[in-house]
Amino acid sequence: MNQVICPDLETLTTQALMLIQKRVFASIDQQGRATLALAGGSTPKRLYQQIAAQSWPWHQIHVFWGDERFVPPDHPDSNYQMTRTAWLDRVAMPGSNIHPMPTVPLTPTAAAEAYEQELQAFFALQPGEFPVFDVILLGMGDDGHTASLFPHTAALQVCDRAVTVGQKGEEPRLTLTIPTLNFGRCVIFMVAGANKAHAYTQVTASQPNGEQYPAALIRPQGGDLWWLVESTILER
Ligand SMILES: O=C(O)[C@H](O)[C@@H](O)[C@H](O)[C@H](O)COP(=O)(O)O
């Protein structure tokens, strides 16, 4: 595990930008394209704005989402909407390179299945294979959740599919599953906010409780794991 402690969110964002750029360009060199699974929430918004200001080969970059709230794509809570506003609407990325998670009017189960099919087709997967994203960006909540994998939910047990229905209380979400996140070539957590200090301590403990702190279940098998953290989350 690589840990980078940053004095503030702006520094953390710059660190993330440099790391992502390095991995995106390496993937394009090696395979002619780069695939990213993006985080939602508030922490990555500034990063997406900074990415939009870069001159990357957008036609060789494909973006997916690690999770999505079950709302229309133009809803203010939509992770897709946030990413479009901060980044995608500002660059010349072909629409076919943008792969949002479907939501309404499908049911959550049907939407998860539809995204599963899209990933299987895009990555040309054989039965039982998982997609391998070049970069997976994740956040963490103050309860230790990541993507939409919340404590003590059924989604934590799903290990035979790439996409499943997450549950934030009564609110359904779509989320990539633990095995999918663990197949990532470069998995990057961006965590800021003193309110997350306790969860971070629990998640990075030597014998963490993954049911209680799901971010602890992200241990990429063949890939790199990066924790880019604001110094305020280090418990004194
Ligand atoms: O859909 C979401 O909200 C995210 O994917 C979620 O997992 C997020 O990364 C964490 O809740 C941290 O959110 P903040 O960055 O807003 O603290």
From TrEMBL:
Signal peptide limits: none
Presence of keyword Signal: no
Protein name: 6-phosphogluconolactonase
Boundaries of every Glucosamine/galactosamine-6-phosphate isomerase domain copy: 8-227
EC number(s) stated in the UniProt entry for this protein: 3.1.1.31
GO MF, one annotated term: 6-phosphogluconolactonase activity
Family annotation (CDD domains): 6PGL (cd01400)
UniProt keyword terms in alphabetical order: Hydrolase
One annotated GO biological process: pentose-phosphate shunt
Domain of life (superkingdom): Bacteria
Catalytic activity: 6-phospho-D-glucono-1,5-lactone + H2O = 6-phospho-D-gluconate + H(+)
Stated family: Belongs to the glucosamine/galactosamine-6-phosphate isomerase family. 6-phosphogluconolactonase subfamily.
NCBIfam families: pgl
Xref: Pfam families: Glucosamine_iso
Pathway: Carbohydrate degradation; pentose phosphate pathway; D-ribulose 5-phosphate from D-glucose 6-phosphate (oxidative stage): step 2/3
Entry keyword Membrane: no
Protein task: Hydrolysis of 6-phosphogluconolactone to 6-phosphogluconate.
